Amino acid sequence: MLFLLGLTKIPIIGFVKPRLIELNDQKARVKIRLRRRSKNHLKSMYFGALAVGADVAAGLHAFYFAGKMGKKVSFAFKGMNVEFLMRAESDIIFSSNDGALVSAAMQESLENSSRVNKSISVIAENINGEIVATFTMIVSVRVK
Predict the structure, then answer these.
(1) By CB neighbour count within 10 A (0-12 exposed, 13-18 middle, 19+ buried), where does 1 fall?
(2) Where are the chain's structural domains?
(3) Which of 44, 62, 70, 80 has its Cα between 20 and 30 A from that of 111?
(4) What's the chain look like in SS3?
(5) Each residue of 47-72: pLDDT tens digit?
(6) Cβ pair 141, 101 in contact under 8 A
(7) What pLDDT is attached to residue 136?
């Protein structure tokens, strides 16, 4: 699903090739490798690649729960706040533990037939487990 999304709808996802590590009711984790496509001139991960990782980690739960509900979902990001703590000089793993929050937002949208906005937290860690950035993604969902 992630491959097809990158191939057909959002080409930048296909360009940096995030890999799904884990996806369940609570947690979504994806990895982006540090390589030529994701590296900047300082040999650390480019901001755009970091944004793609946070986007995918925060957005996977919407598609996951839509599939479980058997419903279509209209999904977009309204905003993003980020704090960079150190340079991302290795592969980066993006983790979101807000699955329950996304599920509740989708239930609320289904019940009220309206768009619901929630803030989703994403943590980006290097291969040593050090946090390199924290993201707050404002997700907007509407279940059809």
Answers:
(1) exposed
(2) 18-143
(3) 80
(4) CHHHHHHHHCHHHHHHCCEEEEECCCCEEEEECCCCCCECCCCCECHHHHHHHHHHHHHHHHHHHHHHHCCCEEEEEEEEEEEECCCCCCCEEEEECCHHHHHHHHHHHHHHCCCEEEEEEEEEECCCCCEEEEEEEEEEEEEC
(5) 999 999 999 999 899 889 988 888 88
(6) no
(7) 97
As given in the structure block, the two tokens for residue 130 are 């050090």
Q: Specify the length of the chain in residues.
A: 144
Domain 18-143: which topology? Thiol Ester Dehydrase; Chain A (3.10.129)
Nearest by Cα to 85 from 137, 124, 34, 39:
124
84-103 pLDDT, tens digit per residue, is 999 999 999 999 999 999 99
Q: How far apart are CA 100 and CA 79, in angstroms?
A: 20
d(Cα 136, Cα 6) in Å, to the nearest integer? 22
State the Cα torsion 122-125-131-135 to the nearest 10°: -20
